[in-house]
Structure to design on (271 residues):
């Protein structure tokens, strides 16, 4: 009887060992698969089409598809979007781009790295998204005040949770935003200030400081892609930067001309 019980226990131990070995092997296989899985998120192909010549752009798309296939990257065509920026008065509908036999959807706006871009290069869609997010954060800010949280903690919550949402990528869109959109965000900031109990920097002040800081970073970083562009417009007689010629209002309201204008408006001791 004792001998039979001992054999039974040994069988159970062997089964447990086999199960553990199988589990370990399965975990190792999963780890190997994960380590060899490749992801290529937020990939963008930008092409300039002139006089209706799309061959170079389409060849670039085909080259990317071929490169992805060779590197074992599977493209998700359903999540791939195409956005055409065209300011011509007479527009002809572009022929669709096809990947693996499927047409890529043409969209008027697209969310890239947390920023809403549209085919008019305006920022109303992005402002709407920021406003909705900031409103939800404002609710939590008011809830904190209802619990008699001190003003210092409210200000800390605003800076870390709400302001980080409102001013996300403000360097990109701050100079080109419409007045009505800027007023919406400033009203929201003013409401947050009444909850916190102190004055908060408005949109113009934050955008000005961040754009100048970003321009200084570019000037001090030789490896930055815009460093040579900014270095060429340095004045040989002062610390000022020469304002680039802007034939279009869209370019004048973009980052570089706006940042240079703000930088030149500073006092010499602040430059």
């Amino acid at each position: 009887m004792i001998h039979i019980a001992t054999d039974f226990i040994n069988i159970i131990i062997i089964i447990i060992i086999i199960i553990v070995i199988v589990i370990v092997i399965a975990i190792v296989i999963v780890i190997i698969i994960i380590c060899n899985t490749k992801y290529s998120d937020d990939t963008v192909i930008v092409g300039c089409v002139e006089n209706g010549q799309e061959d170079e752009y389409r060849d670039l798309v085909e080259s990317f598809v071929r490169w992805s296939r060779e590197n074992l990257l599977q493209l998700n065509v359903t999540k791939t979007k195409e956005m055409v920026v065209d300011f011509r008065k007479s527009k002809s509908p572009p022929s669709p781009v096809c990947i693996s036999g499927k047409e890529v959807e043409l969209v008027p706006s697209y969310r890239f790295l947390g920023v809403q871009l549209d085919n008019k290069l305006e920022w109303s869609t992005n402002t709407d998204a920021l406003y909705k997010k900031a409103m939800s954060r404002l609710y939590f800010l008011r809830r904190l005040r209802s619990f008699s949280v001190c003003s210092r903690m409210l200000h800390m919550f605003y800076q870390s949770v709400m302001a980080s949402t409102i001013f996300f990528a403000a360097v990109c869109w701050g100079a080109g935003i419409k007045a009505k959109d800027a007023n919406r965000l400033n009203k929201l900031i003013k409401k947050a200030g009444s909850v916190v109990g102190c004055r908060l920097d408005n949109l113009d002040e934050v955008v000005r400081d961040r754009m100048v800081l970003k321009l200084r970073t570019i000037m001090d970083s030789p490896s930055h892609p815009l460093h040579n562009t900014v270095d060429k417009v340095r004045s040989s007689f002062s610390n000022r930067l020469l304002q680039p010629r802007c034939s279009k209002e869209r370019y004048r309201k973009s980052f570089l001309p706006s940042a240079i204008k703000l930088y030149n408006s500073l006092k010499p001791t602040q430059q």
